[in-house]
Amino acid sequence: MIGWDDIYKVVAAMFPLYVALILGYGSVKWWHMFNSDHCDAINRLSCYFIMPLFTFDFTTRIDPYKMNYRFIVADVISKAIILLAISLWANFTNKGNYPWSITCFSLSSLNNTLVVGVPLMAAMYGPLGENLVIKSSILQFMFWIMILLLMFEFQRAKRSLDSDVSSIDTRKRTSLLILTKIVAIKLAKNPNSYACVMGLLWALMSNRWNLEMPIIIKGSVQIMSRAGAGVAMFCMGLVMSMQEKMIECSAKLAVLGMVLRFMVAPATMAVGSFLVGLRGNILHVAIIQVSKTGFHSLSLTYVHKLLASIA
């Protein structure tokens, strides 16, 4: 049974994040402290310095040799179900279209794994929840974000295909090769790519040979990474404050976004979890971590803008 102490732990873990978000929102909307150029500079600071070190710091804490492969397979199955359903909807229904397929996939599959997930799961399930969420974030960034970028590039290519190309098969092969290269270049330019890979390499070496990170390096990383969650939520507040309305879409689309986040995502994860035989707290973590969110389920348009910015 859930007690008041458990509820307080969750509230105590999540409340500071939304304090940072409200401060970011209010600094522009109410107090007029920053203009658009200032907001862009703060977002760049977060993107190129704070968040990569934040990602690296958490990635180095895992033990790759003790991966829960059932949890990973369940995550892959759940997202594969969503991809299949979205693909069928986009290709075989009158209302289906590619841009909305990307938005629906991002809403039902991707989340604020480290920023929101770590404090929430740590408060609810302790080290087990924190460890599983970090591993989920590595899988998300190294695989699912790459697929999302590839979907964005296909969308752009679809708009600019040359109608003079005579061979459809040749065009498809050329497009796929070019798009794959574009995605690889974008990932190579993303500091989080290096942070995730380097963190995983250090985790492999440190757990294999019992290495300890030098204090001077650990301190240099943590002095920036400790600000990661707060700055990320603050930046989200800045972006929200720059919009004319906090929720730009209609109430119908907002409800659709919530259904995708809070019903479709947990349901598909539950299917994947039962197929691989997850039980107990691991099953609970698997289902809860896919539905957690940091305000971005409230507006499909807002989500689409944020995701488009990384492509």
From TrEMBL:
The keyword NAD does not apply. One of its GO terms (molecular function) is auxin efflux transmembrane transporter activity. It is a multi-pass membrane protein. One of its GO terms (biological process) is auxin-activated signaling pathway. Its main location: membrane. The chain crosses the membrane at residues 7-28, 71-92, 104-126, 132-152, 223-241, 253-276. The keyword Cytoplasm does not apply. GO terms for cellular component: endoplasmic reticulum; plasma membrane. It holds the Pfam family Mem_trans. It is found in: Membrane. Keywords: Auxin signaling pathway, Membrane, Transmembrane, Transmembrane helix, Transport. InterPro entries: Auxin_Efflux_Carrier (IPR051107), Mem_transp_PIN-like (IPR004776). Belongs to the auxin efflux carrier (TC 2.A.69.1) family. This is Auxin efflux carrier component. The lineage of its organism: Eukaryota, Viridiplantae, Streptophyta, Embryophyta, Tracheophyta.
